[in-house]
Amino acid sequence: MKLPASDHPVIANPDDFDRRSGSPLERLLFNHRVVVVTLFLLITAALAWQAFGLRLNPSFERMIPAKHPFILNYQAHKADLGGLGNTLRIAIATDKGTIYDAAYLDTVRKLNDELFLLPGVDRSFMKSIWMPAVRWIGVTEEGLDGGPVIPDGFDGSPASLEQLRANIERSGEIGSLVAPDLRSTVIVVPLLETDGAKRLDYVRLSDSLEQLRARYEAQGVKIHITGFAKVVGDLIEGMRQVLLFFAVALAICTAMLLWYTRCVRSTLLVVACSLVAAVWLLGLLPLLGFELDPYSILLPFLVFAIGMSHGAQKMNGIMQDIGRGTHKLVAARYTFRRLFLAGLTALLADAVGFAVLMVIDIPVIHDLALSASIGVAVLIFTNLILLPVLLSYVGVSPAAALRSLRDEEAPQKLAFWAFLDRFTQRKWASGALAVAAVLTVAGGAVSLHLKIGDLDPGAPELRPDSRYNRDSAFMAASYAASSDNFVVMVKTPQYMCAQYATLAQVEALEWKLQQLAGVESTNSYATLSKRASAAMNEGNMKWFDLPRSQDMLNAITTRAPRELLNQNCDLLTVYVYLKDHKADTLDGVVRAVEAFAAANNSKDIQFLSAAGNAGIEAATNIVVKKANTQMLLLVYAAVTLLAFITFRSWRAVICAILPLMLTSVLCEALMVWLGIGVKVATLPVIALGVGIGVDYALYVVSVTLVELRRGASLSEAYYKALLFTGKVVVLTGVTLGVAVATWAFSPLKFQADMGILLAFMFIWNMLGALILLPALAHFLLRPTAQAQPRDEKDEEAAAPQRMSSAVS
C-alpha cells in the first residue's frame, strides 16, 4: 500500500505560500511572529520573577473538609476542645531506669519550657507532668484531696520522687502522659493555625523540633515526635530530594526525545517550552494568592510532562513536512492546522479532569484543582502556540527531517506498525475486545476491595522505616491511650452535663465502643465519676459505678479536668483511643457512634461526631469516598462531551473513551494490590489519568477520522495515524512512564505511589489508544462515502482549506 505523501502541498519557498490562508488565529500568530515571541518573552520574564515569591507552607485547616457535619460540630465547640485538632505528641524516653530520676525529670522540665515558648503553641491546653493543669485526685485522711502532679517544692530528692510516684499513680495519666513501663513521658503540644496575624510556619516549626531533638538526645534521652505538623515537616524536608527525582525525570524525557529526533535544537526547544509552562504556573500561583503544599509540589512536573507530550506531536508534524521539502515556516503552519484543534481539546479535557476535583469539599483539593487547571491552560499558549511559532524560526536539522519519513517511505509496512494495524481486522479486533472484557471484569472485581483512607499505621505518606513512622510505632507500643483519638461531643442544656441520666447514656456509649476491635480504651466524665466513687469509698472497687447521688456528682464536677466537660457544663467529651487510624478502624467507630446517636439523641442530649485527629480523618474519608465516584462520573461526562464536540461522532467518542475506562478500573485494582487507599494524596491521580490518557486517543482518532472522511479504508487511515501521531504516542507514553517510574525510589512514599500509578496509566492509556481503539473502530467506524479527488494534486490543494475550516 502506498500512502499519500501529505495532505498539504509541498512549498519550499515561503514567498509562494498564501499568508491569507488558514484560520484567523493562525494568520494572527504567524503573520506577526516577532510580536508574539516578544510578548511571550516579556510574560515569561515577569512570571519568573513572581515565582520567587511562591511559598511552600501547608495549612491544617485547609486539609480538612470544612463543611462536613463532623467538622462543623468541631468548629462550633472549638473553644472548649483545645488540643483536639492539630496537636503534637512528644515522648521523652530514658534507657537508664525509670522516669523517677532527678536528671531525667529536669530534662523533661527544660524541654517542656522550650516547647511552651515555641511560636504557634496553644499554651492554655498544653499538657505534661510539669504543667499545673495536670492534676491528681485522691482520698486522704483529710478527705478528697488533689493537686498538680509535680508537688510543690519538688527538688528531686528521694522524698519528692516518692511523692511524685504517688501523685502519678493517682492522676489517671498512666497510659496517657506516662508510659505503663514508666520509661517515658509525653508532652502534648496543641498548635494554633494562626499566631496573631501570622500563619503557623510548619517549616520553621519542624526545624525547631529537630534542633530540640538533637540537643536533648545528646543529654541521654530519646525523643519521639508525632502529629500532623511533624508529618508535614518531614514531607517538606523530603521535597528537597524530590527535586532530584524531577531532574532525573526531565533528563530521561530529554534523552528519549533526542534519541527519537536526533535533533538537538528542536529537542531543546520542546523541553524549553514545557519548562516555560512550569515557570508560568509557578509565577501565576503567588499572583492569585496560592501557596504550595506537599501534595501540590508535583504539579510543575505534571505540567511539564503534559507539555512534552503535546510538544513532541507538534515537532513531529513539522519535522515530517520539512523532510518532504516544505519550508519550516510553512511546515509550522501546516502542523498548527492539523493538530491545534486536537491539542486544544486534549488540554481542555486535562483541565476539566482537574477542575472536577472541585466537587471534593476540601480546600487543599480546591487549590490543587485550580492550580492544575491553570497549569494546563498555560500549555495552550506555550505548547500549542509558542512552540510552533518558535519552530517556524528554528526548524529541525535536515538529517532528522529525512529520518522522520523513513517509516512512511518504506516499501512495506514496518513490523511494529504492521502488528498494531492488525487490530483493525475482525479476528484481532475481536480478540483484543475479549481480552479487554476479561480484564474489565477481573479488575472490577478486585477494585471492589478498594479502601478509602489510610491502610497502614503511622503516616502512609512516609516510608515505613522513616523516623516519623518509627516514632509512631513507639507511641503505639508504649501508650494505652494512643495518639489516634476520636472524640464524641455530648451536648446538653446548660448545667445539665453532670446529670445521672446523661452520664448513664455516656457510659452506655463507652461500653459499645469498647467492644470494637480497633478501640484500645475510652475516657469521659462518666469514667472519672466511677473512679471517684470508688476512691471516696476507701478504694473499694465494688463502688466502681456511677454515683446515684447528684450531690456527689456535683462534688466531682468541681475537680474534673476541663477537657472532660466545659465551664458551662453543657458539653461533655468522650475520648475514644484507637490502635490506629486505618480506614476500617475509623469506619467501625463512625458507624457505632452514628447508630447510638440515632437511637438516643433527644432535645436534652445530643451525641455529636467528631473531634480529635481520628475524628477529623474520618470526616475526610467520608468526603473522599463520596467524591471518588462523583468525580469519575463528572470527568468522564466532561471528556465525553469535549470529544463529541470535536469529532461530531458518537462512534468515535466510544472508541476514545472506553480504553480510558479500562485503565481506570485496572488502576483501582492496582491500588488494591499495592495496598494504596483512596485519600487526599492519591485521589487527584485518578482524575489525572483520565485527563492525560485522553490526549493519546484524541491525537490518534483525529488523524484516523480525517483519513476515513477522505475515503480511506480503516487500515489505511489507522496506519496513517500511526505514522503521523501514533509514533509520538508511543514515544511519550514510554518516556513519561519510565520517567515517573523512577519516583518509586523516592523517600516519600506518597510520591512513590503516585509515580507507580502514573507510570501504569501512561503505559496502559498508550496501549489502549494503539490496540483497543482500532479494535473498537473496526466495529464502529467506516470510511465516509464521498467523491474522491481526481488526482493527488487536486487533493493536496483541497486539504489545507478543509483542515483550516475544521480548525476554525
UniProtKB/TrEMBL annotation:
Transmembrane spans: 34-52, 242-260, 267-288, 294-312, 339-360, 372-396, 428-450, 631-647, 654-676, 682-706, 718-744, 756-781
Chain positions covered by the region annotation Disordered: 788-808
Subcellular location: Cell membrane
Residues in SSD domain copies: 266-393
Membrane topology type: Multi-pass membrane protein
Record carries keyword Transferase: no
Cellular component, GO, one term: plasma membrane
Alphabetical UniProt keywords: Cell membrane, Membrane, Transmembrane, Transmembrane helix
A Pfam family annotated for this UniProt entry: MMPL
Protein name per UniProt: SSD domain-containing protein
